[in-house]
Amino acid sequence: MLALNAAHVTETGPLDQAALDTLLAEATRATVAEPEAGFLLALAPTARIEGPNVRWFRQRMDDFLYVDRVVVAPAARGRGVARALYADLAAAARGLGLRALVAEVNIAPRNPASLAFHEREGFVPVGEAHLADRGKTVRSLRKPL
Question: Rounded CA gap, 61 and 118, in Å?
C-alpha cells in the first residue's frame, strides 16, 4: 500500500506507516486487490480522521462511505480492478444502511483518468474546494446507492 501510494502521491497525498496504521484502524473498508494491483481505503462519517475532505462531506451529509484513497497500479489498469473495488465498497455501504459513496478527485492538478472513471461509475459533482496548503483543488463527488 505504501509503495503504490508513493507512486501516486500527487493524486492521493502523502502516506507514511504511522498514517497508514491510523487509516487502517479507522477504516470501515480496507480492500487490497491482488498483491500490488491496487487498494481502496474507505471511512464512515463516524471515523476519527480529521482531514479537510472528509470534514467537507461530514458537514453536508451523514449517510456515506468516504473513499479516502484508491490506487490501481499501472500494470493492473484496464482490468476492472477499480470497478471491482468500488462494487465491493457499494455492497458494504448498502449492508451498513448507507445511501452513498463519496470521494474527491483533483481538478488542479487535473486527474483526468480518475474524473472519467468516477463519471462512468455514476458519481456526480457536489462541490469543489481549493486546498491551499496542499497546492490543489478537488472536486467532491457523490454516488447515490
Answer: 19
**3-class SS of residue 83:** helix
Please give the CATH superfamily to which domain 2-144 belongs. Gcn5-related N-acetyltransferase (GNAT) (3.40.630.30)
* Residue 102 CA: distances (Å) to CA of 29, 85, 89: 13, 14, 11
For 30-84, how does the pLDDT look when each residue is reduced to its tens digit (9 = 90+)? 999 987 899 999 999 999 998 898 999 999 999 999 999 999 999 999 999 999 9
> pLDDT digit string (tens) for 71-81?
999 999 999 99
Query: Cα 41 from chain centroid?
Result: 7
- Find how far residue 8's CA is from the centre of its chain: 13
Q: How far apart are CA 75 and CA 37, in angstroms?
A: 8
Spell out the domain ranges in the chain.
Answer: 2-144
- At 9, phi and psi to the nearest 5? -60, -30
Cα dihedral 37, 20, 103, 64 sign: positive
Joined grid coordinates for residue 24 = 487502517
